[in-house]
Design brief:
This protein is 29% helix and 22% strand. With 260 residues, it is an alpha/beta fold. The strands form 4 sheets. The protein has a 5-stranded mixed sheet, with helices on both faces. A 4-stranded parallel sheet has the order 1-4-2-3, sandwiched between helices. A 3-stranded mixed sheet has the order 7-14-13. Strand 8, helix 6 and strand 9 form a beta-alpha-beta unit.
Length: 260
């Protein structure tokens, strides 16, 4: 499993680039394969479209089981809404013996998850420091999770005053969920609560805006957007969102006192 980070090749970690270079087969979603095309030279490409996750994971596992060096790519971090979980689920269902490189004893093949920069980290970097304190991450896609459960998670995150990161906020077919979530949050949060909306972080077409919970629906959002809703302490500073960790209050640091 090779994580590609948010998009631009500059944000792929060296270990991931080495894994791609060593691979005989590179499998993945066609859009992600296109993003790393400059890094691919000799590899055989196995690409599939949307909603073919199981198919490409099975194909990658079959090739690895046959003894080939395979890199199954995933955007962001493969272990965060990526393919790592599905690969391991399929291996467990098949009762395959897998383990990381160097595993003692016999295995059907070695499996390693190479980490990457997740979309939430890329988005947060563009917004400044919105995730400096506790936060929850919730996907608004109800394709695999019942909407009632998503609602409950949003409500509990709001009641716990957690910064809330929303993945998959809107698509062509799912165009009402973000509005419903905004209404849920407004039952607990102030309409002036800062909200960061980041689309295509660290890739072509990147855009970041800081707005408020009351006005967030006025901005363009799609499946390549991350929405970060602040907590009760989050504030804005120019183009940035800041969620204080509490250092200044605890240690009474100020420019006047000369503290650090």
């Amino acid at each position: 499993m090779v994580s590609l980070g948010p998009g631009f090749p500059e944000y792929i970690i060296p270990q991931a680039k080495a894994a791609l270079a060593a691979a005989r087969v590179v499998a993945g979603y066609r859009t992600y394969i296109d993003l790393i095309e400059p890094l691919l030279t000799h590899q055989e490409i196995v690409a599939t479209g949307m909603k073919a996750e199981v198919k490409r994971c099975r194909a990658a596992i079959d090739r690895a089981y046959a003894g080939e060096q395979v890199a199954l790519v995933s955007s962001g971090d493969a272990g965060i809404y990526g393919m790592a979980g599905l690969v391991l689920e399929i291996c467990a269902a098949r009762e395959l013996k897998v383990g990381p490189p160097g595993t003692a004893g016999e295995v059907d093949f070695h499996l390693e998850v190479v980490p990457g920069v997740p979309a939430l980290a890329a988005a947060a970097a563009l917004l400044g420091a919105p995730l400096m304190h506790d936060f929850a991450v919730i996907s608004l896609s109800d394709l695999l999770t019942p909407w009632e459960l998503i609602e409950k998670r949003v409500e509990l995150a709001a009641q716990g005053d957690l910064v809330t990161v929303l993945y998959n906020p809107k698509s062509k077919k799912r165009d009402w969920q973000l509005s419903a979530v905004r209404d849920l949050l407004l039952k607990v949060k102030d309409p002036a609560t800062p909200v960061g909306i980041v689309s295509r972080a660290m890739r072509e077409g990147q855009d970041a805006v800081v707005t408020t919970l009351g006005e967030m629906l006025q901005h363009q959002v799609d499946m390549q957007t991350i929405v970060i809703v602040g907590n009760s302490q989050t504030f804005t500073y120019g183009p940035y969102m800041i969620t204080p960790r509490g250092y200044l209050n605890k240690y009474q640091v100020s420019e006047e006192s000369g503290g650090e």
